[in-house]
Amino acid sequence: MLGAHRVVTRGEGDCDVAKSKHGSIEADFRAWKTKFLARLQTLQKGEKKPCDGNCKRGQCESSAEEEPFESTSEEESGTEDHQNLNSVVDVEDLGKIMNYVKKEKREKEQQEEKSSLVRNTVKNEASERRAMITPALREALTKQGYQLIGSHSGVKLCRWTKSMLRGRGGCYKHTFYGIESHRCMETTPSLACANKCVFCWRHHTNPVGTEWQWKMDQPEMILKEAIENHQNMIKQFKGVPGVKEERFEEGMMIKHCALSLVGEPIMYPEINRFLKLLHECKISSFLVTNAQFPVEIRNLKPVTQLYVSVDASTKDSLKKIDRPLFKDFWQRFLDSLKALAAKQQRTVYRLTLVKAWNVDELQAYAELVSLGNPDFIEVKGVTYCGESSASSLTMANVPWHEEVIHFVCDLVDLIPDYEIACEHEHSNCLLIAHKRFKIDSEWWTWIDYNRFQELVQEYEDSGGSATFSAKDYVAKTPHWALFGARERGFDPKDTRHQRKNKSKHISGC
Fold first, then answer.
1. What's phi and psi for 418, nearest 5 deg?
2. Are 423 and 408 a contacting pair, CB within 8 Å?
3. Which long-range contacts (CB under 8 A, 24 or more apart) does 504-509 make?
4. Residue whose C-alpha is closest to residue 321's, from 441, 201, 199, 448
5. pLDDT tens track for 3-56
6. Phi (first) and psi of residue 321, to 5 degrees
7. Among residues 295, 308, 244, 255, which one has the least CA distance to residue 279?
8. Model pTM?
9. Residue 498: partners with Cβ closer than 8 Å, 6 or more residues away
């Protein structure tokens, strides 16, 4: 309104991935910022137009959306004065000439100051990245019980760790795979995630992003502080009534690491080095990914067990439930499952059932199973974590355990190479296993952790040439962990459908 000219158009972004031009509101801003800095650099060089000037006035082809740069009457008069500097002038005109020289000198100094600012801005952008954990985020996560590590990692004590310290039951991983819950450390080297799942039990307090854009801490420091923080939390249980001394001593010696605390661990650029350090400490690795990083899955070194979250079986339902940031989320999802199929070690599909959202897509789920050919499929009813402005989920979306059993039975009918192996009622979870883990009519879903450490050491010593498979480190599953075990009121001779019908009367949520 005062005669100034726009340098760059207003940038617009949208939190809705579908409406976002570049995949996320952060990416929209980065694109606008790059454009803005480029214009500033153009002005720094003294150019009045973003193009070479060979276009019609007001119709710059290289940037049709921008308003053309025009000179003002003052600039034109200044040009005339500048042209007259080299000609003969009268004494009475010297004052005018001196004023112009001073003005030109002052403008030159201001231009150099602006140029320095632009250069420093670009330099700082390239050399310094911000920390993922902001002060506000640090305060929020600390209140939730996280022990934060460096600028992007965290560790937290699992409720099942506390339970097993008291000599009580373990988590579903104890039932399905034989981990010792009181010796398990739940951590993550990346609090950031590429999804905004409706059932996120962290209520979206963690940051989001589609690529690593933050300051990065070294894996040695992350692991060292994760172990120290975990052990400090275990120490707080010393002398607590009910805590068994033997379990307490064992709990101080970490044997398992669940990389599933929050966020997307596979986003961390040094994830392979972190896994190697874990294995060097004789700690097994259970890594969970949200199936949006297929290249990283392909490049991943051996882990004890690799999980992929399969929260929906169609493009529409995946978009509705996971709310991914990537525009090509569905192709990334499919490519991730294909990458999983190429892995030699144990692989798992993790299905979270959300009632009225994704429980009616059985045939589509069966097709996804054939795509990734996982060793195991965990089917779990969603856990309601309270009301949140970021999600419309309610208790009505939580399936009863008998409903989860019915879903699993119907799914197994569509995938003939699999059978129901184990069950953990407290977690509202069942395990479907490939028949190759049923040896001489007995299930071998548990893991021989010492054997895995031997195999992964051979792999490292050989430079990656000594490969090994999922069946090379199996252990026999105890009877009490099996689906339909007598300990739960079933008869071992019952068929799967007889157990399904009995579950209506003896299973709870």
1. -125, 155
2. no
3. 504/402, 507/401, 507/402, 507/405, 507/425, 508/401, 508/425, 509/381, 509/398, 509/400, 509/401, 509/428
4. 199
5. 778 888 888 887 766 667 777 788 889 899 999 999 998 888 876 555 444 444
6. -90, -50
7. 255
8. 0.72
9. 491
Break the chain down into helix, strand, coil percent, rounded to 5.
45, 15, 40
Query: Could you say which DSSP state residue 5 is in?
Result: -
Q: Which two tokens stand for residue 449?
A: 């952790």
125 torsion bin: left (phi>0), alpha (psi -120 to 50), beta (else):
alpha
Residue 214, both tokens: 């933050």
Judged by phi (left if over 0) then psi (alpha if -120 to 50, else beta), residue 373 lies in: left
Q: What is the pLDDT of residues 98-115, one digit of tens each?
A: 777 777 777 777 777 666
Residue linked to tokens 């009877």: 479
> 3-state class of 437 per DSSP?
helix
* CA 435 centroid distance within chain: 31
User: 26: which 2 tokens?
Assistant: 């952060």
Q: Residue length, the chain?
A: 509
Cα distance between residue 350 and residue 451, in whole Å: 25
The contacts of residue 63 (CB under 8 Å, 6+ apart) are 50, 51
DSSP helix/strand/coil, 54: coil
Contact assessment for residue 359 and residue 410, using Cβ atoms and an 8 Å cutoff: no
